[in-house]
Amino acid sequence: MKTLALLALAACGAAQPAHTNAARDRDAITQLGPAFDDAWQHRDPHARAQLFADDATLINPFGMRAESRADIEKVFTAETATIAHTSTHHFGAMQIQFLDADTAFVDADNLIGELPNGDLRYHLVAIAKRTPEGWRWLAGRPYSFLPPP
């Protein structure tokens, strides 16, 4: 529930800028992208899941839900057997807004490439949090934009 409240706050622009070591924290969050890409390219669902907090949640672009790091690894294992089996992943530039010193709202346009039916572009809305392990994803909601009506 806290995750939904944080997403709502960030979406409404109600969050105030936090006092953090912004450059260092921004770099640490940004590095989650290449680390995810590398784990994808190496077909390593465990390494991908390690980028998430223990209490993280995820709904992947295909509607699979996960409520913990262990569940996220199961989703990534299923993806590795299907969509991630031979494809590539590229995180785009991230927009990062700090909600407080230990929490950030992140969004990015990403690409799953080398799919049989062409590339899949999607947008990620996520929350990152500072953990004892460093910055990790707390919530991820990747989605594709719908065409206008």
Question: Can you put this structure into words, describing what you see?
Answer:
It is a single chain. The chain has 149 residues and is α+β, with helices and mostly antiparallel strands. The protein has one domain (2-6, 27-143): Roll (Nuclear Transport Factor 2, Chain: A), CATH 3.10.450.50. The protein contains 5 helices and 7 strands, in the order ααααββαβββββ. The chain has helices at 2-12, 22-30, 32-41, 45-49, 69-81; strands at 52-59, 65-66, 88-90, 94-100, 103-113, 120-131, 134-143. Strands 1, 2, 3, 4, 5, 6 and 7 form a 7-stranded mixed sheet that branches. The longest helix is centred in the middle third of the chain and has 13 residues, at 69-81. The chain is globular and about 45 Å long. Residues 4-18 have low confidence and may be disordered.
